[in-house]
Amino acid sequence: MSTPRTLFEKLWDAHCVREESERAPAILYIDLHLLHEVTSPQAFTELAARGLKVRRPERHKATLDHSTPTTAADASGRLAYITPQAEAQVEALRANCKAQGIELFDWDSGKRGIVHVVGPELGLTQPGMTIVCGDSHTATHGAFGSLAFGIGSSEVGHVMATQCLLQRKPKTLAITVDGRLPAGCSAKDLILHIIGRIGVAGGTGQVIEYRGTAIEALSMEERMTVCNMSIEAGARAGLIAVDDTTVDWLRGRERVPQGEGFDTAARAWRQWRSDDGARFDAEVRIDAGDVRPTLTWGTHPGQVVAVDATLPKAAPETVGALSYMGFEGGAPLAGQPVDVVFVGSCTNGRLSDLREMAAVLRGRRVHPRVRMLVVPGSDAVKREAEAEGIDRLVREAGAEWREPGCSMCIAMNGDTVKPGQLAVSTSNRNFEGRQGKGARTVLASPASAAAAAIAGCIADPRAYVNPKAVTEEATACTPSAPSTRRSSRCPAPTSIPTRSSPRAS
């Protein structure tokens, strides 16, 4: 009888061309390489300098997302790139893909969008694959039972030339989440809670497999959110086993087999799960019932707190982050005044995320102080959201409905937070200056972001969809200790007038 293996071990064994030794890493075959315009130019230049061609161009797919403007083209068709360099990156990717025979999802393709949104929605991402991209949040694709991770620009060139990578075998970490997420809590709240629990170095040198009844209950889009932020816990990748939810979501996708071919593929896909009795290098258990709407308060994704809790006291390990954020230790998080709200990114830019936001925003107005940007993750997401009236709901609330792209997540395209402003963002990183020089970022779920936009301050989203689940302290959106950057009063959610608007389901 064979030794039980983890999902990671199965994926590694199936793709390992040569095992590692003390002197050399293993050689790992790569099934799918995803490209965008920012991290690929150097790799293409290196290939050209060496006179090399892409070994298997059909295994490489490209899109435009990082440097692309999220405003519509003008009357002449001109796009408002923030710099000539940004436009040059796009033109370089176009030229390189054409020269190397790589399919590019360009502006006019109808398939363009954030790389980690486009791959799954087209069915390019499939169970059992190894997937890489010059982007740290490639871990997103692990939600499909695939080994997916980010690589550097030199490695991008290596995989294009050889379809392989040199890799040291990581260890494994099982995070088991059992129970049921409370009403008003989402996958984003869960992964922020997990990172807060294990820390930003908790997954270092490991691949995380998320398991348990609470994980099994998540939709595919929610699973992508969880795996997306594995890197923020220091992990190499995140994985979730294949089940009926995975197979049903993939059925009918453009790039998966159709008809009987799909049934054959689905039977093969179901093997991608850990065997009973498989052993992990480390394990963590979490009760889903302990999760509440969770946001970051500091300058990395491990500095988190529930919306109805107080900020940590000032201490050597917290004072720097509190100072940068303009927060007072021991004060409530709810009530901190907000300037900007961003809903989008590869973490929370899918249709279900926009629906979650819409459920809070419906019939309400964005606070006059707040600028709110809503950026779909892809052309397909934009079309689907508009078919449901979400774009109309957003505009009537006083928010901006944008074209697909990475937008304010990385602030490379003109969508930035001004110095000193506080942004509530559904993206994945809250490092100093991540969303603009001097910007202060609070990471949150789409529901929490929408609640902040309406209240003009950090607020409990449950007050808008399930008031009985909210404590009196959390609904009082007036800061007991105003921000040290400025003083402002925020109205309680219940005081905000509503008005009718088209329903977006």
Descriptive tags:
single chain; 505 residues; alpha/beta; Aconitase, domain 3; Aconitase, Domain 2; five-stranded parallel sheet; 19 strands; 15% strand
Account of the 3D structure:
The chain is an alpha/beta fold. It has 3 domains: 161 residues, Aconitase, domain 3, CATH 3.30.499; 120 residues, Aconitase, Domain 2; 202 residues, Aconitase, domain 3, CATH 3.30.499.10. Helices cover 30% and strands 15% of the residues. It is built from 18 helices and 19 strands. The strands form 5 sheets. Strands 5-4-3-6-7 form a 5-stranded parallel sheet, sandwiched between helices. A 5-stranded parallel sheet has the order 17-16-15-18-19. Strands 11-10-9-12 form a 4-stranded parallel sheet. The protein is globular and about 55 Å long. The N and C termini lie far apart (51 Å). The C terminus is likely disordered.
The Cα radius of gyration reads: 22 Å
Largest sheet: number of strands, sense, barrel closure = 5 strands, parallel
Low-pLDDT runs of 5+ residues are 478-489, 492-505
Sequence of strands across the biggest β-sheet: 5-4-3-6-7
User: CATH superfamily of the largest domain, please?
Assistant: Aconitase, domain 3
Portion in beta strands:
15-25%
Q: How many β-strands, per DSSP?
A: 19
By helix and strand content, what is the structural category? Answer: alpha/beta
Helix percentage:
25-40%
Give the overall silhouette: globular
In round numbers, the mean pLDDT is 93
State the end-to-end distance. Answer: 51 Å
